[in-house]
Write a structure and sequence with these properties.
Blueprint: H1 2-38, E1 50-52, E2 55-57, E3 75-77, E4 100-102, E5 121-123, H2 134-137, E6 145-147, E7 171-173, E8 192-194, E9 216-218, E10 242-244, E11 264-266, E12 288-290, E13 312-314, E14 320-321, H3 327-336, E15 341-343, E16 347-349, H4 362-365, E17 393-395, E18 414-417, E19 420-426, E20 432-437, E21 444-451, E22 461-467, E23 472-475, E24 483-491, H5 500-513, E25 517-522, H6 537-579, H7 587-594, H8 600-604, E26 611-615, E27 620-624, E28 640-642, E29 658-661, E30 664-667, E31 680-681, E32 686-687
Parallel strand pairs: 2-3, 3-4, 4-5, 5-6, 6-7, 7-8, 8-9, 9-10, 10-11, 11-12, 12-13, 13-15, 14-16
Antiparallel strand pairs: 1-2, 17-22, 18-19, 19-20, 20-23, 21-22, 21-24, 24-25, 26-27, 26-28, 29-30, 31-32
């Protein structure tokens, strides 16, 4: 009796405890509801999230709806979920404490609407957002950083004056979208703009108008070319500290680059073939210059004259020609010492210095005559040194309308003007020796040459400066069997100037006031190799390509024939095998069981066979039967034998019979496929052609 009372008391206590627990939960929910309505208390952290003071971590939870959040939340981590536009509750707009929201890697296809107006930083990258409406951005007046990378935003999908409601926006990332031009109406407060990996191919003059505060501009991986960039595009960005134009289609750096505050300039992987002398003028604060992955062979003397603060120079992946044209750079490297780090300055030519660093060519550079940056080439030590070859660079944009005067003299190559006598003489198929005699001394000469047949205004005139004490020059790497116009102009200045730009202006003035002396010359034919077939190297190289095409075509044709033959053989084989299988699926097995090739004539009854087909579980087997030898049943099994078929001379009738031979029941039936009957007479199993059975 006492035990029953204790059990009943225990049950009542458990029930009371359960009621108290439910009551506490209800009170907690009521308090939370009051806190949500009145804003007097903090809401609890969602069960699916993790909270740490003002940080709420709801990322990677596969959420399709944002749960109720604490009122003290300042940073929301909602990335890598399944949130769509409908998953953002309207109550999120009433929050006044949220500063940063991470919503990247979700399923948003429109710019979110229900966002708190107190937002400072918004991450929306890696979604499928297509438009930027002005009304939605206007609800975020305090926004400073906006990340829209890896979306589907195009230039036309950005509404006009879309950023007019975000006057504090300092950072805008639009990388890897579908932009074809610079977005219009960018906020003047912008300090960093990333537009890399888009389809931008044109930058007009007004593209960056008003962006005086811009510090960092990234335009990597677009379709920019020199002809599609306005001349004063970047000159408006006076406060720019970093400019990146990696992976575009530039052949030379854009002109009028900002120089006052620029610290980092990235021009790698463009295919640059020319660096104008004044590209880096005024960049005294430049710390990093990257020219890797281009087609530069030389750098003009004076390119780095203003880069006193340069700390890192990257030159990987260029076919540098380490002749005396880089003597000035060799001297500059030793003059700067450890103050600058240069990487990738490895010689690609001449052959004697291939693979060596320019810094290690002190012995060869000592053979160069004249001041640094002179016009000699490195050559092996000989008793008679050839005429010097200088640094060649193509001037395309400095004087695009320059027309060289017609050369005097004959094709032999002599001309004179104002006591200046010019002589040109071909030495080989691709080299010409230029000598001159000038009674009046000059500080330097400007030597220019142009291959005839192309316009000087549209093509390129190659020219170089030669010291005044020299009287000869060697032109190399010319086109064989071509006509060239070679001109020489003495440069005389009446006064000296200390500034580099003033010196350039003075020389330009003297050039326009004087007329150069020109002469025409024709290069010879290319040398034929000894013991050859009479064709030159170019013909041999061109003949290799058709031979390779013939071999490749023959190989492909043979491969196709083999494949076609194998296919035909396989198709014929498959058809043969399928044809051997009759309606019972045993036709192909009969030949195997018989141990000899299958003969269709046996099936049709035109040939005698002394074998029978024994059908038993689980498969089929062929059992030979000797003449006059009765068959015995095996263990009382119900065995069915299909006897061989013999032809009949008049087997058109139909007959059915059940005969019993020595206890074995032979089931005979009509076979209409071939119009023949088969039968056996008496006990000896002798073929009977008079009476037929099926």
């Amino acid at each position: 009796m006492a035990a029953e009372s204790l059990a009943e008391l225990r049950d009542w206590l458990f029930l009371l405890l359960l009621c108290l627990t439910l009551l506490a939960e209800m009170l907690e929910l009521a308090v939370a509801a009051v806190a949500m309505e009145e804003g007097e208390e903090d809401f609890l952290c969602p069960l699916v999230c993790r909270c740490d003071e003002g940080f709420v971590y709801c990322n990677d939870r596969r959420l399709s709806m944002i749960p109720p959040l604490p009122l003290t939340a300042t940073v929301l981590y909602l990335q890598s979920n399944r949130l769509a536009n409908s998953g953002l509750p309207p109550s999120l707009e009433r929050s006044s404490s949220i500063r940063v929201v991470y919503l990247y890697a979700n399923q948003l296809d429109e710019f979110p609407i229900h966002l708190p107006p107190s937002l400072r930083e918004l991450h929306l990258q890696d979604n499928n957002i297509r438009t930027l409406p002005r009304t939605v951005l206007a609800r975020l007046p305090l926004l400073e950083r906006l990340h829209l990378d890896d979306n589907s935003i195009s230039t036309v999908s950005i509404q006009e004056r879309a950023f007019s409601g975000t006057p504090r926006l300092r950072l805008l990332f639009l990388s890897r979208n579908h932009l074809s031009s610079i977005p219009a109406g960018l906020p003047v407060s912008l300090e960093e703009l990333r537009l890399d990996d888009n389809r931008i191919n044109t930058i007009p003059t007004h593209a960056f108008r008003g962006l005086a505060s811009l510090r960092r501009l990234v335009l990597d991986g677009n379709l920019l070319a020199n002809t599609r960039i306005a001349d004063d595009t970047f000159s408006r960005l006076a406060n720019l500290t970093e400019l990146s134009l990696v992976r575009n289609a530039l052949q030379a750096p854009p002109i009028n680059l900002p120089s006052t505050h620029l610290l980092r300039l990235h021009l790698q992987d463009n295919g640059l073939i020319h660096m104008p002398r004044g590209t880096l003028d005024g960049m005294r604060r430049l710390q990093r210059l990257d020219l890797s992955g281009n087609n530069l062979t030389t750098l003009p003397r004076g390119l780095l004259r203003d880069t006193d603060g340069l700390e890192l120079l990257l030159l990987w992946g260029n076919p540098w020609y380490c002749g005396c044209n880089l003597l000035w750079l060799h001297a500059w490297l030793y003059g700067r010492g450890a103050a600058v780090t240069v990487r990738g300055l490895t010689c690609h030519g001449p052959e004697v210095v291939r693979g060596q660093a320019l810094r290690d060519l002190s012995g060869l550079m000592d053979q160069c005559e004249g001041p640094p940056g002179g016009v000699n080439t490195v050559s092996s030590t000989t008793t008679t040194s050839p005429p010097s070859q200088g640094s060649m660079f193509t001037l395309r944009a400095m004087r695009p309308g320059l027309v060289m005067p017609p050369g005097g003299g004959e094709a032999g190559g002599q001309a004179s003007h104002n006591a200046l006598e010019l002589t040109v003489k071909p030495l080989s198929a691709d080299s010409v020796q230029v000598t001159w005699l000038c009674p009046q001394p000059a500080p330097s000469f400007r030597l220019s040459w142009l291959r005839l047949g192309s316009s000087a205004a549209l093509g390129s005139i190659t020219e170089t400066l030669v010291p005044g004490e020299r009287q000869q020059y060697l032109l190399t790497q010319l086109t064989p069997r071509s006509h060239y116009l070679v001109c020489l102009l003495p440069l005389r200045s009446t006064s000296s100037h200390s500034g580099g730009s003033q010196r350039g202006q003075q020389q330009e003035k003297d050039t326009t006031d004087q007329t150069p002396v020109c002469a025409q010359i024709e290069t010879g034919e290319a040398l034929r190799p000894e013991g050859g077939n009479g064709g030159d190297d170019s013909d041999t190289e061109m003949a290799v390509l058709p031979l390779a095409e013939i071999i490749g075509g023959a190989t492909a044709l043979v491969s196709l024939i083999l494949i076609f033959g194998i296919f035909c053989w396989y198709s014929q084989r498959a058809g043969y095998v399928s044809g051997e299988t009759d309606s019972y699926g045993v036709r192909g097995q009969r030949g195997v069981g018989m141990g000899k090739p299958y003969d269709d004539y046996v099936e049709s009854g035109t040939k005698k066979d002394t074998s029978i087909l024994e059908i038993r579980s689980p498969g089929l087997a062929m059992t030979p039967m000797m003449t006059h030898q009765p068959l015995q049943p095996k263990g009382g099994e119900d065995v069915t034998y299909v006897h061989t078929i013999f032809p009949s001379s008049h087997g058109n009738g139909t007959y059915r019979s059940n005969q019993s031979h020595n206890g074995i029941i032979t089931q005979l039936g009509h076979t209409a496929g071939y119009g023949t009957n088969r039968g056996y007479r008496e006990q000896g199993m002798i073929p009977d052609i008079d009476y037929t059975y099926t």
